[in-house]
């Protein structure tokens, strides 16, 4: 964790850098500063709670919506663990299914896409 005095000095330095550099260069400088101040990457729950969140963009003409945001480590682990269990039951062959050599109406991505996600155990 970074003490308050060091954090204030870093913020002042970033403010000066913001007047001298373009956003891309400022981002690189801020990342380097963070790597020096907190090399182990240890963040408090309050730090993570302040930054986490999701934004869902407007729905496009095709019905699709863009999504962006930041997940805390617990939510990321929850989402990483079960995708193989989200496969649709209809993706598995059954005795009444068509032979393997027959053509399916699904495209390759559709046949591999996960079923709708279950309700998440907690809000992000």
TrEMBL record:
<feature type="compositionally biased region" description="Pro residues">
    <location>
        <begin position="115"/>
        <end position="124"/>
    </location>
</feature>
<dbReference type="Pfam" id="PF02720">
    <property type="entry name" value="DUF222"/>
</dbReference>
<protein>
    <recommendedName>
        <fullName>DUF222 domain-containing protein</fullName>
    </recommendedName>
</protein>
<dbReference type="InterPro" id="IPR003870">
    <property type="entry name" value="DUF222"/>
</dbReference>
<feature type="compositionally biased region" description="Low complexity">
    <location>
        <begin position="93"/>
        <end position="106"/>
    </location>
</feature>
<feature type="region of interest" description="Disordered">
    <location>
        <begin position="89"/>
        <end position="124"/>
    </location>
</feature>
<feature type="domain" description="DUF222">
    <location>
        <begin position="2"/>
        <end position="82"/>
    </location>
</feature>
